[in-house]
Amino acid sequence: MSSNKFVHVVNFYLKPGLSAAEIKTFEEGVSTLEKIETLIMFNVGKPAETDRPVIDKSYSYCLLTVFNDEAGHDVYQDHPVHLAFIERCNALWDKVVIFDSVTIPQ
Predict the structure, then answer these.
(1) Which stretches make up the Stress-response A/B barrel domain (predicted)?
(2) pTM for the complete prediction?
(3) Which domain covers residue 2, as residue numbers?
């Protein structure tokens, strides 16, 4: 059995000109994803203040989730909490960019 973890990173690009209430709706919505039971790590944040040419700070929020395996990620994708977040908040973003990866053996 593999001990490689499945990492799912989502960069959200919110629509310009959102109200404070709309941003709060997004932040509250994305935070609900932490409740999904197959997660082993969850973090959501905004671009840091670091400034180097190789850093892309064009996104609004970055969601980092880690699962024991791809099957845990698949449960997350179809989970009612995830689907409710998308339905409630997808009108607030222009695009999302997703990076899925599997950790390399240590």
Answers:
(1) 6-101
(2) 0.93
(3) 1-17+97-106
